[in-house]
Amino acid sequence: MKYLNILIFLGIFYSLFSLILSIYNAISDNKDLKSQLNKKNYLYLLTFVSLFFLDYLFFHSFNEALKASYAGLILTGVTIVIILTLKFGLNIWFKLSVNKLNYLSSVDMSGFTIFKNDKQFSYSWMEFNDAVFDNTKQKLRLKGTRNIVIKKSLGNWYKLLKTIPRTFPGLDYSYIDGLFNDLQTCMVCGMVAANALECMYCASDIWSDDLKSEFESEEKYIIENQLDEFATMDKTEKFCNFILKDTFFNQDPNWKPLVTKEQVLEYSKNEYWDEKQN
Q: What's the chain's average pLDDT?
């Protein structure tokens, strides 16, 4: 009976946790609660009620059944609070550290600039006599008077490849050319810069089966990425009105965002603006 009691308690915890988490996600996404009461959530509710009565049936005590329910509810609340606290903490850490990251800030026909530990380093293409990819094509090693390794994670990776001179004997130019063939419109930013795997402008992954485990639908994935792509970092930054201009890629004139200006500014306020600006 002891093990049965534990199993019933864990079942109550799981059903309550899943139901409450689903409701929280609906509230945080500003969705109608009624639209979230799908078959899965009804199943969670039915499981909880069934386990409650099963507990009562086996132990012949309404109080014992209530105790199991209370314990499951308390454990659910504690678990959700811990998860939300960790999520909030990670968001704060990201906001505090984002300005300290290294990044490739600009690329043009004369060279490029890298910010590293809040210091600016400028390079001219004339400094280098050769370039070569690593085996994963995620790093580019430039050789010359100053040797440097540029990682894809620094940003502006595709602009760098699009601009790099065609004079380096060790560089795989056929690979670079293949990246820019048959580009499609990115559903997130609207730039005609999407290959089979990702957008070369905003770096959003192309919707695939792998993303279905993280997002309820392609629409929700696009909305979440658009909110972040068009967000303003502070209240004084002018909103771009979903119009992007770039030297290397063009925006599809027929593309339309799934979010509104008001939604983007509200997201920016909650995620990026300093509390003093709110």
A: 80
